Amino acid sequence: MADSSGGTVDLVVFDCDGVLVDSEPIAVPILGAALRTLGLVMTDAEVHRTFVGFTSGRCIEIAEERLGRALPADFAERVQVRTFKAFCAGLRAMPGIVETLDRLPVPYCVASSGDPGKMRLTLGLTGLLDRFRDRMFSASEVARGKPSPDLFLHAAERSGARPDRTVVVEDSLPGVIAAAAAGMRVQGYCPTGEGAELVAAGAILFRDLRELPERLVEVQEGS
Questions:
Q1: Which of 30, 33, 75, 220 sits most deeply, having the most CB atoms within 10 A of its CB?
Q2: Residue 176 burial (CB count, 10 A)
Q3: Rounded distance between C-alpha atoms, residue 197 and residue 171, angstroms
Q4: What is the 3-state secondary structure (H, E, C) of 93-150?
Q5: DSSP 206
Q6: pTM
């Protein structure tokens, strides 16, 4: 296989939140509301730009840096409980992802900053879990999360793919930076089309997941 930038593609790695499942419109307002009760006043748009793409631990560090003090010890747990409850009430798969997965002619996996339990919940609620069993990789499995390349390199190694033959589908700046640092090609999923920072970090933008198979053009030997 070859993507639109040229070269063989042996593996597609999907980010989870915002690419496979439409979790960010649910999770971001909950996190923003929780932070505002502690005095960290941010709009939901600012919360999205500041925290999306990072591990939960890194999000806590960023919030504490901005507040200038430690968050309550149970902050992350309370936010997670509220978020998971909201997921159970209304989480959906991203538009077009099922059709896209059905049409992908190369192996694929998911590599997420979320922990394995969160991935199992969100993929299960959206009917995608069976498609990713034994193909789920979490930042909890590596030393450094995004924007470091560790997670994507780990996913490629476990999948038996070379980094330069791996394409990553990401919607966050930390994820694009991580994939580029891993030596992988990055398709930046941006439904709004407003992804200048993703392009600057090395991504090729696209707006509809259903475009992805066409971006991975099959190349027969000798063609």
A1: 30
A2: 27
A3: 11
A4: ECCCHHHHHHHCCCCEEEEECCCHHHHHHHHHHCCCHHHHCCCEEEHHHCCCCCCCCH
A5: E
A6: 0.91
Q: pLDDT tens track of the chain, all 223 residues? A: 666 555 789 999 999 999 999 999 999 999 999 999 999 999 999 999 999 999 999 999 999 999 999 999 999 999 999 999 999 999 999 999 999 999 998 999 999 999 999 999 999 999 999 999 999 999 999 999 999 999 999 999 999 999 999 999 999 999 999 999 999 999 999 998 888 999 999 999 999 999 999 888 643 232 3
**Per-domain residue ranges of the chain:** 2-22+91-217, 24-90
Q: Do domains 2-22+91-217 and 24-90 have the same CATH topology?
A: no
* Spatial separation of the C-alpha atoms in residues 103 and 109, rounded to whole Å: 14
Enter the tokens of residue 97: 């992802």
Largest distance between two CA atoms of the chain: 63
Class of domain 2-22+91-217: alpha beta
Measure Cα distances from 72 to 48, 84, 86, 215 in Å: 21, 19, 22, 46
Exposed/middle/buried for residue 65 (C-beta within 10 Å: 0-12, 13-18, 19+): exposed
| C-beta neighbour count of 120 within 10 angstroms | 15
Question: Looking at the domain covering 24-90, what would its CATH class be?
Answer: mainly alpha
